Amino acid sequence: MTPTLRGRARSKTSKTSPTSPTSSASPKAVARRVAGHVARGLAMIWVVATISFVIIREIPGDPVKGQYESLIQKGMSPEQAERATAVLYGFLPTGSLWEQYTGYINSLLHLDLGRSLSTPGVEVTTLIGSAARWTVLPVLAGTLLSFLLGVIMGVYAAIKRSGRLGDVLALSGSLLHGVPVYVIGLLLTAIFATLWPIMPSGGPVDVEHVPGLNPGYLGSLAHHAVLPVVTYTLASYGGWILAMKSNVVAVLGDDFILAAELRGLKRGIVFRYIARNAILPLFTVLALSIGMLFGGSIFIEQIFNYPGLGLLLVGSISSRDYALMGGTFLVITIGIVVANIVADLLYTAIDPRVRSGGAA
Amino acid sequence: MTANPTAPAVRVRGLTVVYKTPVGELPAVSNVDLTLAPGTITGVVGESGSGKSTLALCLLNAVQSPGRIAAGSVEIDGLGDVVELGGEELRRARGRHVGYVFQAAQNSLNPLKTIGKQLLDLGRSHGVEDLRALVRDAKDLLARMGMDGARVLDSYQHELSGGMRQRVGIMLALVLNAKVVVLDEPTTALDMITQATILRIVREVHDERGLTTLVITHDVGAVAEVADNLAVMYGGRVVEHGPVMEVLGSPRHPYTRGLIRAIPRLSGDISLARALPGRPPTLGTLPAAGCVFRERCDRRMDVCDTVEPVPLTRDGRTVACHAVDAAADVDANAAPGVAAGAADRTPTTARRKEYA
After folding, report:
1. Which is deepest, A151, A181, A264, A302, by most CB within 10 Å?
2. CA-based nearest distance A236→chain B, Å
3. Confidence band of B140 (pLDDT split at 50, 70, 90)
4. Neighbour-count burial for B244-263, b at 16+ CB within 10 Å, e otherwise
5. d(Cα A229, Cα A141) in Å, to the nearest integer?
6. Which residue in A256, A351, A359 is closest to B108 by CB distance?
């Protein structure tokens, strides 16, 4: 046993055999990662587009062909009917499946989703664009608000878990998590729009205001948004607080928290250690739920009469507006795919353990 | 034994730690006296549940809920009674006066921050003005332990091996110049070569920096290699304490002897190793009166059922056992009848003072 010799040998190995090439990913690696994600995302979107094409084309009764034939019956020439149907669906009603498919993909690449049937003549992209306005802002506000609230309250619920405050907070989480969103929405309308009418009962904005950046219009927008946002916040708050509470409790039991205390770290620093480790898994969920918001919230839009994406989708289904349906599906898909990419990149940025090149 | 003038002494007196359970408060550490001489390494061995980790946490007054220190004191030179400390005073003492090194298998580092950032957190928490100097000290310490300091400080916990983590733990415990260091199972879950390296580092750093060190372990071999003194714990009591070679060479307490007999030899017949019969007591099965070891003892006497043996010190060795007392008394032909019965408690206690 020659300690000096062994010591030298060890120090040599620890220099020449790095456990990981780099502790922080290089810009090149990040670029490669992003490129990979984008490629996979595009592939996913293409698959969904193809599936929705096949469904619309092959659905019983063949709506495309039906449209084409009904136009001929109305006295159009076959050429005219063909053109009109192509405008409607973005691809030719006749021809082989392959010709139709390439035509469809081609118009997709030009961001042409076809025209709506239920609102004749209006492009699907226009409809989706205007509906998205009424969905994205309230749902985004609700998601972020409930996340913030749930995370903060979750930390308190975990720290005070053996006290009354912790019980109350955990109970509020379970209760709100269990109550369906439409019950919360109806209750809030009943209370604040009917019994004690301080809030508008529906619609995204009062019609008497001129749209634009004037205080009256913006104020009315905000006023109308309060109940939907609060409903959405309350509906998703329960999930956040419960998840955050259990995460914090788990982290509190981790050895490194005790170690930090035994090293005499300041309370604030220990608290940051706890919070950052506990919030980590929730960021993925947050990114995904932001992606989901393009699906809209059908119940909330229905209750508060918001002409958002959720209502658009339901409307397109009930009126058999296939072009609009396909377009809405596509937008939801893109939202989720993008959110997945963002979630993954976000996680890479905030958790060193999943960075590429890190040896576990 | 390398007595160092700068090293502080640690005196544990009458320490009792109780844990709150549904059936009331049960003692995990019972009336323990233990002196860590300045500049020495003291090993504490015992089975799981013997109270050795609880004892270690007491040096930082960090017994975790539902446990609490019910009685006793832990005096550290230059710091005072740790049991009396609280709040900010206690926080500042941790890390600055008393360093604590976790078991390597435990993740004692924040997985989301580099070692360097955690070092800076440590410095800021203790009001270190010159953070550059702190980083320099840390690098020196890491280099002293055979590591590339700059690279380690840039690493995350998951990028380090068990042995490297353990050395990082030692660095974090020492970088603020703590003179009392507690190592909780420093070699558990490490391979044999790394174990030997860590123990050598502990010994060398201990000598160089003039520390008073407490090593908690259940590995008697590790203790033999590194410690000056050895304390054997059983059922929350220190049953034997003395210079490590003497305790291991001629164990007096029946439990210590059983423990040593149970170690299988690397060469030779494995059946020579005899496991101790029975199981170690848990908080709930600990007898309320008498000797805690009597159920597993081969030298059990009547008195063991009723009277708890008091630690007696002779020739620099402390043992808490009626049978050992009786034998010693016969040998020395002293104080007849001491071991005879329960009524002789007073002379025993008096004698203890005499020897101490």
Report:
1. A264
2. 28
3. very high
4. beebbeebbbbbbbbbbeee
5. 7
6. A256
Indicate whether this complex's ipTM tops 0.95: no
* Rg of chain B in Å (alpha carbons): 21
Q: What are the structure tokens assigned to A333, written together?
A: 């898909």
Instruction: Look up tokens 């003549």; give the residue.
Output: A121
A151 in the Ramachandran plot: left (φ > 0), alpha (ψ -120 to 50) or beta? alpha
The residue type found at A33 is: R
Q: Which helix (H) or strand (E) holds B325?
A: helix B322-332
Choose among B100, B110, B146: nearest Cβ to A14. Answer: B146
* pTM listed for this prediction: 0.76
- pLDDT tens-place string over residues A16-55: 333 344 444 567 777 888 888 889 989 988 898 888 888 7
Residues of B in contact with A256 (CB under 8 A): 107-111
Sheet holding B229-234, edge to edge: B98-101, B180-184, B212-217, B41-45, B229-234, B237-243, B317-319, B312-314
Task: Give the Cα separation of A359 and B57 in Å (integer).
Answer: 33
Residue A166, Cβ density class (10 Å: 0-12 exposed, 13-18 middle, ≥19 buried): middle
